[in-house]
Design brief:
This protein is α/β, with parallel strands linked by helices. The protein has a domain of 50 residues. Helices cover 25% and strands 16% of the residues. The chain has a 3-stranded parallel beta sheet, sandwiched between helices. β1, α1 and β2 form a beta-alpha-beta unit. The chain is elongated. The mean pLDDT is 88.
Length: 102
C-alpha cells in the first residue's frame, strides 16, 4: 500500500479588471446644423487617408453648404499631432474629422 502526503497549496488570484475611468475632458457639444460652418480634417498620414477625406469632403459639400474646409496632417500615424495644429483646428473649425486608424 502506497500513501501520498497531502500538501496545501496557496494560490493567489489577481483580478485584472479595473473600474471605469471618469472622463476628465467632457465631449464637445454637437452641432444642430453644419450649414455655413468650417470643417477640418486631421489626417494621420496613413495611405489613402487623403483620398478618403477628399471623398468625404465632396459628399458633405453635396448635402451641406460649408463655409470652408481646412486640412492638416501629422508627420506619421505613430506620434500625436503638434499642439499648434490642434489649437489651430480648434480655433478655426466648427467640427473636425480625424483619421485614427487604417
Amino acid at each position: 500500500m502506497t500513501s501520498i502526503a497531502s500538501e496545501t497549496i496557496m494560490v493567489t488570484l489577481l483580478d485584472p479588471t479595473s473600474p471605469p475611468r471618469e472622463l476628465s475632458n467632457p465631449l464637445a457639444n454637437g452641432l444642430n446644423d453644419i450649414k455655413g460652418k468650417t470643417l477640418g480634417f486631421l489626417w494621420n498620414n496613413k495611405p489613402n487617408g487623403d483620398k478618403l477625406f477628399r471623398k468625404l469632403e465632396s459628399l458633405i459639400k453635396e448635402r451641406y453648404d460649408l463655409n470652408q474646409v481646412i486640412y492638416k496632417q501629422k508627420p506619421t500615424a505613430s506620434i500625436p499631432a503638434k499642439s499648434e495644429i490642434i489649437e489651430e483646428l480648434a480655433a478655426k473649425c466648427d467640427m473636425v474629422i480625424v483619421g485614427l486608424a487604417d
